[in-house]
């Protein structure tokens, strides 16, 4: 199905108007507006019949521009390579919208966020509690409305987010608030009966930095990439790439070929170092520190190379709207290739030594089972999805940068356990090595930055998905007039993946909980949300 | 199992000892490393381009009087992106190799203040940057001797020499002692405690 056919279908079935706000006619992207009465029908059709995967929703305060709030639900159809935005306008007098969570469970957190941040209430939401805001943030103060200033410190209120009491007969084992093995702020309360985990309560969001608000109130278009890159401490380049691509699409900027290849190379370098880092941490968590020592040793040359190429080990700072500002000159190609050769040899040796290791296998095989159906239903992404046999990879399904010119395959395993997720990452590291080699070979000469002479016009929307090491990162941008977006909505992959952790922990052993959680490669700082599940009764308030 | 353990042992043995004896032995970063942004206050013309692009919004510009622009950099917030160095028209900013910036008093140690001598707009009375370096030199108050000669136009009346007709070179040194920092050079003062 093409986007045009989809537009016609939506028009016929649900009176969906195309292209409001003005969508750029980029291939694989469609933006429609549906009135709130027909919203649920449209969502049901997309989700149940048309095979669409839910990404995220975004609430924008457009009272100044159009006198309305705008609620946007973003979907992806991976077979046809389509990204779809379904907008619904909400009257400020009656700020509510029918909740889509009963149909699409994965929309749970993001709809609660809608209420917290913009003040649009999802009617019929199964768990309308506060999610994003701190306990002492006052009610009726919605940070993402334009008339709420950036940087305010309201006096604390005593609103309390209710905590889930443990099920009868179980005890609570706290894991956090500073997650002990991942060194990040996350607070799991595990409800255990003996050794078995029967429930969990997750409270996160300790690290909310208000980046979205900054993007729409104090930063300018070209300052955001550097802040976006700091959304994640390990895979930041994906965020700046996705943001830049979204703005470039909104403004119709075509970036030079060479810049596309450079972005690809930096993204793959980042993926390699992230997977190596993860493998080390996984080894550390299961108590096999040799893995940690050796993978981090192998990772170090990647970091040194990144420092040489970009001026920093981790935060490359290369992306900017219109292209990149760091070049990969021919002189350093050999350094890159040497590093890749050495890494490949060592990686293969490591790969061979893992499957025979029975103690490692005992910790990984058959633990942390995430069934295929649950993975599809909760719209998980990245290696977490591919480890459960869900063959999605943004690089191939919705190509960006130079990926459409490189040859590679999706790494999918269908064991649904910690081992599968490990193997996916092991395979992907080798794929990345191949991708960088191809990209270096094909990279054309030429400029790396398109000069932008005109202001980026307001009122356009742009969207981009990028495959991060942890899964698909999506950024949606609605351009504004003051040299900054009206709304910028980033979604980190862990946002999707973390929602599935509590159901997955059900029935697992307490000792496996850290590796089960870590096998998602969660990035709490990027996500920081909250979920409560009572697993014994299967009652979910997540 | 055994084979696998032997393979693992081989990986470790082949790698050998890799730990660097840092910090006992310093390890200089690669060429092009983006470290502490050093400002050459003698080159800066106070145009404000760096403040406009800085994503951390850490460069505060304020005009303390009609001829002095003060730039305060709260570098504890710096994200080392190097955008300021990239846009500076005078190449006054260098991304140095310095990365050991940890401090228990980051606020004091990493705050950098400099003041740049600006021209005064004859209409609105606010600071602006003179069109050419020559114009800047021609501005009253730019050089010590001109402070003395400046007469009514001197922005620092309290510094005006009693005999402002023909100051001799010797007197300069004397004046130097009384000068308030803001005019002691093109760029007056650098507070940079590291
Ligand atoms: S390096 Fe970046 S963050 Fe630091 S002062 Fe310069 S522009 Fe600002
Ligand atoms: S440092 Fe450079 S960019 Fe910043 S005000 Fe001075 S001359 Fe302008």
Explain what this protein looks like in three dimensions.
The complex is a heterodimer of chains A (542) and B (194). In chain A, 39% of the residues lie in helices and 19% in strands. With 542 residues, chain A is α+β, with helices and mostly antiparallel strands. Chain A has two domains: 3-155, 2-Layer Sandwich (Beta Polymerase, domain 2); 211-445 and 452-491, Orthogonal Bundle (Cytochrome-c3 Hydrogenase, chain B), CATH 1.10.645.10. In chain A, a hairpin with a 2-residue loop joins strand 11 (187-193) and strand 12. The longest helix of chain A is centred in the middle third of the chain and has 29 residues, at 257-285. Helices cover 26% and strands 19% of the residues of chain B. Classes of the chains: A alpha+beta (542), B alpha+beta (194). Chain A binds chain B through residues 218-219, 222-227, 230, 290, 293-294, 297, 300, 304, 307-308, 311-312, 315, 317, 325, 346, 349-350, 352-358, and chain B through 1, 3-5, 7-8, 10-12, 15, 18, 29-34, 53-57, 79-83, 86, 95. One iron/sulfur cluster (SF4) binds next to helix 3 of chain B.
Key terms:
heterodimer; A: 542 residues; alpha+beta; Beta Polymerase, domain 2; Cytochrome-c3 Hydrogenase, chain B; 2 domains; five-stranded mixed sheet; five-stranded antiparallel sheet; 39% helix; disordered C terminus; B: 194 residues; four-stranded antiparallel sheet; two-stranded antiparallel sheet; 26% helix; 19% strand; elongated; binds iron/sulfur cluster
Briefly say what this structure is.
The complex is a heterodimer of chains A (542) and B (194). Chain A is α+β, with helices and mostly antiparallel strands.
């Amino acid at each position: 199905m093409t986007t045009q056919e989809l537009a016609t279908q939506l028009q016929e079935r649900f009176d969906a108007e195309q292209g409001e706000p003005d969508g750029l006619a980029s291939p694989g992207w469609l933006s429609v507006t549906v009135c709130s009465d027909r919203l649920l029908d449209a969502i049901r059709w997309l989700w149940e019949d048309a095979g669409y995967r839910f990404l995220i929703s975004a609430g924008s305060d457009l009272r100044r521009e159009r006198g309305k709030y705008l609620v946007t639900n973003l979907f992806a159809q991976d077979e046809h390579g389509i990204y779809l935005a379904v907008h619904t306008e909400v009257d400020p007098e009656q700020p509510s919208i029918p909740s889509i969570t009963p149909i699409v469970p994965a929309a749970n957190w993001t709809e609660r966020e809608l209420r917290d941040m913009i003040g649009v209430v999802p009617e019929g939401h199964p768990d309308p509690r506060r999610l994003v805001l701190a306990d002492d943030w006052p009610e009726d103060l919605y940070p993402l409305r334009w008339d709420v200033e950036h940087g305010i410190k309201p006096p604390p209120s005593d609103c309390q987010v209710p905590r889930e009491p443990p099920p009868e007969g179980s005890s609570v084992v706290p894991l956090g608030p500073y997650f002990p093995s991942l060194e990040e702020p996350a607070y799991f309360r595990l409800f255990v009966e003996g050794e078995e985990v029967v429930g969990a309560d997750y409270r996160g969001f300790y690290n909310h930095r208000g980046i979205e608000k900054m993007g729409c109130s104090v930063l300018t278009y070209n300052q955001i990439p550097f802040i976006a890159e700091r959304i994640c401490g390990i895979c930041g380049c994906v965020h700046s790439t996705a943001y830049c691509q979204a703005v470039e699409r909104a403004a119709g900027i075509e970036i030079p070929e060479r810049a596309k290849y450079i972005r690809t190379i930096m993204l793959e370098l980042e993926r390699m170092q992230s997977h190596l880092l993860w493998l080390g941490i996984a080894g550390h968590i299961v108590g096999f520190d040799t893995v940690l020592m050796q993978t981090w040793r192998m990772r170090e040359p990647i970091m040194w190379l990144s420092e040489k190429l970009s001026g920093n080990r981790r935060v490359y700072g290369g992306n900017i709207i219109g292209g990149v500002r760091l070049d990969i000159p021919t002189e350093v190609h050999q350094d890159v290739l040497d590093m890749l050769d050495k890494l490949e040899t060592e990686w293969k040796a490591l790969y061979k030594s893992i499957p025979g290791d029975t103690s490692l296998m005992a910790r990984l095989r058959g633990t942390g089972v995430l069934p295929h159906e649950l993975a599809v239903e909760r719209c998980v992404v990245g290696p977490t999805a591919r480890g459960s046999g869900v063959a999605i990879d943004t690089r191939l399904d919705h190509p960006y940068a130079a990926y459409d010119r490189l040859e590679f395959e999706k790494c999918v395993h269908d064991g649904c356990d910690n081992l599968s997720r490990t193997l996916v990452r092991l395979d992907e590291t080798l794929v990345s090595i191949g991708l960088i080699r191809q990209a270096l070979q094909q990279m054309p000469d030429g400029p790396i930055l398109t000069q932008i002479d005109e202001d980026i016009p307001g009122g356009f929307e742009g969207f981009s998905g990028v495959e991060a090491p942890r899964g698909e990162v999506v950024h949606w941008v609605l351009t504004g007039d003051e040299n900054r977006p009206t709304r910028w909505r980033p979604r980190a992959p862990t946002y999707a993946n973390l929602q599935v952790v509590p159901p997955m922990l059900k029935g697992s052993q307490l000792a496996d909980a850290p590796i089960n959680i870590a096998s998602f490669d969660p990035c709490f700082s990027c996500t920081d949300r909250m979920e409560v599940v009572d697993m014994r009764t299967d009652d979910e308030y997540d | 199992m055994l084979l696998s353990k032997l393979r693992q042992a081989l990986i470790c043995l082949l790698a050998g000892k890799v730990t660097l004896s840092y910090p006992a032995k310093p390890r200089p970063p690669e060429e092009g490393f983006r470290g502490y942004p050093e400002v050459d206050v003698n080159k800066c013309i106070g145009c404000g381009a760096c403040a406009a692009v800085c994503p951390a919004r850490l460069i505060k510009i304020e005009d303390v009087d009609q001829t002095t622009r003060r730039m305060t950099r709260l570098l504890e917030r710096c994200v080392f992106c190097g955008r300021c160095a990239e846009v500076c028209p005078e190449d006054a900013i260098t991304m140095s190799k310095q990365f050991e910036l940890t401090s228990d008093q980051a606020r004091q140690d990493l705050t950098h203040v400099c003041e740049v001598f600006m021209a005064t707009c004859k209409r609105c009375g606010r600071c602006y940057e003179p069109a050419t370096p020559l114009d800047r030199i021609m501005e009253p108050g730019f050089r010590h001797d001109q402070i003395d000669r400046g007469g009514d136009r001197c922005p620092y009346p309290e510094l005006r020499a009693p005999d402002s007709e023909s100051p001799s070179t010797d007197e300069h040194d004397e004046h130097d002692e009384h000068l308030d920092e803001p005019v002691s050079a093109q760029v007056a003062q650098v507070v940079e405690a590291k």
